[in-house]
Amino acid sequence: MRYLSSGESHGPELTVIVEGFPSNLKVSREAIDGALRRRQMGYGRGYRQKIETDTVEITSGLRFGKTLGSPITIHVVNRDFAHWTDRMSVWDEEPENNKRVVRPRPGHADLAGAIKYDHEDVRNVLERASARNTATIVAAGALAKQLLEHFGMRVHAHVVEIGGESVADEKLPRDWDAWVAATEASDVRTADEEASTRMKKKIDEAKEAGDTVGGVFEVVVVGCPVGLGSYVHPDRKLDGRLAGALMSIQAIKGVEIGLGFETARRFGSQVHDPIHYEEGRYTRPSNGAGGLEGGVTNGQPIVVRAAMKPISTLYNPLESVNMETKASEKATVERSDYCAVPAASVVGEHAVAWVIADALLEKFGGDSIEQIAERLQAYQERVAKR
Ligand SMILES: Cc1cc2nc3c(=O)[nH]c(=O)nc-3n(C[C@H](O)[C@H](O)[C@H](O)COP(=O)(O)O)c2cc1C
Ligand SMILES: C=C(O[C@@H]1CC(C(=O)O)=C[C@@H](OP(=O)(O)O)[C@H]1O)C(=O)O
Prior knowledge:
alpha+beta; 32% helix; binds flavin mononucleotide; Chorismate synthase, AroC fold; five-stranded antiparallel sheet; four-stranded antiparallel sheet; binds ligand EPS
């Protein structure tokens, strides 16, 4: 299964084509729209989200709401394009009419991208580098999530840290449904109200100072069968594939699986999960591995964390250089978010769902939902005998 996305942040639309998705899954368009809405929300977002109401139009790959096995084309309109038609014209080339962006913003692809692609106007870089494109990750991932849900797997993300303010470990939710409900009710997507107040204060502080903050989110997958991914070759290791999917989200600077970086500070006996055999099945009393050993799922919940750097555009800008005159000047200020960790957690949730669904299809093949179901059931019967 693969997907390809396109679209500039202030162009007419974003497009995603999903290929290799199995046939006969009844798809909920409302669920995709719901996921897109969740991505738009969160304390610290900028004015753009008041303009956009992301919803999908699906123009291929479905018939009467069921997948056909053919490529699925999804469109998300950029409502803001209406305000940018001159500056974002696809055909007319009148750069004189354009106010060019020439003072690259530190932390963005602006400078390196302009040099790499020979652009005089940094807008030619920032339009595609923008995290607006994360709507396409969510749209494709929302399809993947529905596939996983069909087979009893659930994926959810929550925010565990913003600007150094974190959710206390003992407050990390244990009950799945209560956790999801609490996360969704929170405007910073954390189930700990007290931490949420501290996080919002940090975001307010940053906003007041013309500054920005980052944070950490966690994605959890439950119901995954043992044996997705493989230890036999580097590019088949599921831990590497998950890390790659999360790291390629804009502004993600670190990924941890299970105890992650903490493993480096502990003795082995405090890191690895003992193996027991109880009531006819293998059990693990802890999950420091975060559900992955040797790049293979071990049947425990998958737990992955990602660290997001503070938003790059600062209203109180850092020093930059005018690329035309080479004079030292302040960086360009583009309309911006102050904190997008809650939004990024929704993106991460869908990036993870995509990778897991892809691994599920690899293991169980199948062009249709029915074929996958047969193979999954046969496999689970085998696993039960081990
Ligand atoms: C959901 C989301 C929203 C973002 N919003 C903004 C924004 O409003 N302004 C900004 O400067 N950067 C924003 N970013 C981050 C930039 O896109 C990112 O810093 C830039 O692409 C470079 O990141 P990289 O070096 O990790 O690739 C956002 C990122 C995400 C995931
Ligand atoms: C548009 C989205 O995020 C954008 C990501 C972004 C960036 O530089 O990454 C910059 C901002 O763009 P604008 O200047 O148009 O407000 C954000 O709003 C979105 O998430 O839908």
